[in-house]
Write a structure and sequence with these properties.
This protein is an all-beta fold and about 110 residues long. The chain has a single domain (about 30-110), classed as SH3 type barrels (Roll), CATH 2.30.30.40. The chain has no helices and 11 strands. The strands form 4 sheets. Strands 9-8-7-4-10 form a 5-stranded antiparallel beta sheet, with no helix packed on it. Strands 1-2 form a two-stranded antiparallel sheet. Strands 3-11 form a two-stranded antiparallel sheet. A hairpin with an 8-residue loop joins β5 and β6 (about 60-65). The chain is elongated.
Length: about 110
């Protein structure tokens, strides 16, 4: 409904994986020096997170489309750029450039829980 408020579509990264619209007055923007990204692909894709920036790297974790990660350094191998990512639970590894959408550095949206 158009109530004159700004609305944001959010997706949680918790175990419940909920998503939906939130009124702007309930959203807080926190500045961050981190770069974030979300895993990308088809909705039913399982995305391999590897131990090295290469298709030869062992799969150390798997993710799904929409997973939120922090993005670190990048590397090139066999024509692909790879990004080193960290999950909120601490899992780390490399993901191929066509399987991640990297956001510009700046801010992250949070919703207060109190």
């Amino acid at each position: 409904p158009d109530s004159g408020l700004y609305w944001y579509y959010l997706r949680s990264t918790g175990k419940l994986r909920t998503e939906g619209w939130v009124a702007g007055e309930l959203v807080r923007f926190n500045s961050s020096n981190q770069t974030y990204g979300t895993l990308a692909g088809s909705s039913d894709d399982v995305i391999n997170i590897r131990s090295a920036p290469s298709l030869k790297g062992n799969v150390v974790h798997t993710g799904v489309v929409g997973d939120l990660v922090t993005v670190g350094r990048s590397s090139r191998d066999a024509g692909y750029r790879w990004y080193y990512v960290t999950y909120p639970n601490g899992s780390k590894g490399w993901v191929r450039e066509d399987l991640i959408s990297v956001w510009p550095q700046g801010c992250i949206i949070t919703c207060p829980t109190n």
